[in-house]
Every structure is written in C-alpha cells, then in structure tokens.
Amino acid sequence: MSPQLTLQTPLELAPAEVPTYLEQLWSPEQQGSTGTGANTFCLLIWQPAWAEQQLVRSGRLKGPITGQQSKQLIAAGRQAIADADLPLSTPPLDIAVIRACAAFEGSEASDDLRGQYIDPALSALQPRRLITLAPTIDDGKPLETLVAAYCPLPEEGGGTAACGDVVVLRGGHDALQDGMNILQPLLPPSMPSWVWWNGFLDEASGLLEQLASSPRRLIIDTANGTPRHCLDLLRDRVESGQAVNDLNWLRLRSWHETLAMVFDPPHRRDALSHIVQFDIDVEGHHPAQGLLLAGWVADRLGWQLEHTEATEDGIASRFRRGDGVEVNFHLMSVPMGQPSVHAGQMVGLRLVSQPDNAKGVCVILCAESGGCMRLEGGGMASMELLEELVPTQHASPEMDVARLLSGGHDTTNPLLAAAAPLAARLLA
Prior knowledge:
By secondary structure, the chain is an alpha/beta fold.
C-alpha cells in the first residue's frame, strides 16, 4: 500500500506561530472540520534522505523527494555504485554512495515532500503528531516550517478515527538548529514521545543529543554509521537507562527464533553447554549486527569475554564458559555482489559443540540469499550436522518502526540491554 499524503497542502508558518496554530486546530470550534485529535503519542523523525536528495538533484532519480526507501531509490543507488566505480559490495544508500553522488553534475529541482508522506503502517497507529526534521543538501537554506492535519484513509479505518497533524522543519543544518526551540511546546508531556533518528548515527551529534533527551524514547539503526560510534552510542543509551530501540537488532528476530528452535528439542539442549567454536559471517565490513547476535548468545549462555582483536578479515575473540572451557569466536566480513540496503546484515553462523563423551554437533544457519559452503568447511564431517535457512525479512523501515511503536515499550528490550554492552566490548 502506498503512503498517503496529508489532507491539505501544508501551510507554511513562521516558527513562532506553529504552537498557537496547532492549539487552534484542535480546539472544540475546529473539530467539526478536522475530526478529534488523537490522544496517542508523538513521533519526531530526523529524515535527511541524503542519497535521495543527491540522486534527484543529479537527475538519476525522478522526484519528488519523499524520504521513503523505494525500489526506484535503491535501484538508482546501485547504478550510482557502478557509475562511480565503487566496490560492488557497497550498500546502495551508503555514505560512500552519497559522497559519490554529490560529485555528479546536475541541478534538477524537485518538490520536497518529506514529512508529508505518511506510511500506512504508521498512520494505522493514529499518532497525534508527526514532526519531521528535513535537512537539505543546500546547507544555507533558511528554515521553513510547514503544518497540516491528516486522518487515516477510509479503507484504513478513517472517517470516524482520530486524526493527527504533521509538522515539518526543513532547511540547512544551522537553520534547523535555530528551530529547535519550538519543539518542546509541540511535544505534550501527557503523551509519550518517540525520536526516530532515520539517518547516520555519527552525523549532527549535537542535534541528536537535543532531540533524544530522556524521557523521550529513542529509535536508532546501528547499521547506519561507523560501527564503533553506533555500538558505543547504543551501549551508552542502554546504560543511562533511557528506552532505546535498535532496528538492526529487530532485524535479527528470525535468527533468534531459528537458533532457539534448533536447540529446543530436549535431546539437543545439552549441546549448548559444550560449545567450543562460534563463527558469524556478515555482509561487508560493518560488524554491528553480527556482534549484537554474538553478545546475545554469550549473555544467554553465561560466557565471559577474555580477549578480542581485529583481524584482516574480521574480529577474533575468546570467551570462557562457566565450566572454564574456552570458546573461540570469529566474525568474518564476506563480500557480496548485491548487498542489502542495510550494511552488515547476517549471512550465516556456525556453532560447534563438542561434549567429552558424545558425538559432536555442528549447527549452521544461513540466510536465503547466501550459501553455507564456507561454514561447512573446517573438519566438521565427523559431527552431526544441522543446517537451517533463516527467512530474510524485507520490511521497510517504517514497518519496523510501526512494530516497535505498537508495542508501546517504555523500557529497552532486556535482551538488547544485555547484548549491547558486550557487542561494544567485542569491537574493541
């Protein structure tokens, strides 16, 4: 289902006029024309869409700019990788692609509809207020503040449903910084507020600190940004007690479920106590997702990290089990010809269990898009071999965010809270 536009063309107002206008919009005198204001939650979105802006400007993608991860955007990003002679293993919306696109000639103009497109997965939750910060590639662009009402479409339960409003702050970085003072009046303390940082985690760090202050709940994606910064930020937010959600962790759900099912039969559970080797393959050179999965396994099984180091092809670490036996862990970066739009997605994992007086077990899980051949090597022929394919998820970021919001979590997932600090230590 395609995203819906707002009910009306957004009205451009001076920043100081926005809070008063919204108060009047939902006053009893106005409710007959716009519906009842939803009493749900507010969502504040940082939505730079750098790759889309540069591809549209250079004429390689047809506008308007929406901030959505469309198939056309991803295809244009892959074409830009080829045209700029970047490694084919580069994710299509990577920072290297953005820099390459910035060097392409062109000055195509297009409508910027970021914040005005509302994904059905989000509108179905009937948010009271969607606030979008839309930085422009023209860093000198002055601040524009747009306001509009919206209601869910009739086929989505609209008509009698509660409505909401959208606020868009658009401009250069300095202009957005100057507009921050209007945000607090727009986020009622009576409603939970979420901040979705839909960009690289190592950009505009000052704005991130301002937007994501507690008690606001933070949604990030540790696949976006340098691995060290991503995992450190996640760990710091977890340890501060702030409610934080990671879309990169959310995409591990199928891996968690499949691995749990493999060891669910009673006769196989004892193998978990005798693991001696743990290997993970990830796409490219962004290890965050693989390290989060490793942190989850190590925490659940009570392993203690003793040593970790970077290697030529990844990360090598050593754990100590509760019975004192050593567990060797290796995360390997695997080049992919057509990688996921999300950097560093899981390709496969291998767990080797070697009981003292029983036949060893080798468990291999692989993504549908990857093969198991590399993980099948290494002298495993004498062991019981268990192989499973893990379904690859293709949900849009908006659908993933909607899944998080529908849960209404006001604390960090306890499994993520335990895995994040260990993942950050593994990268050290």
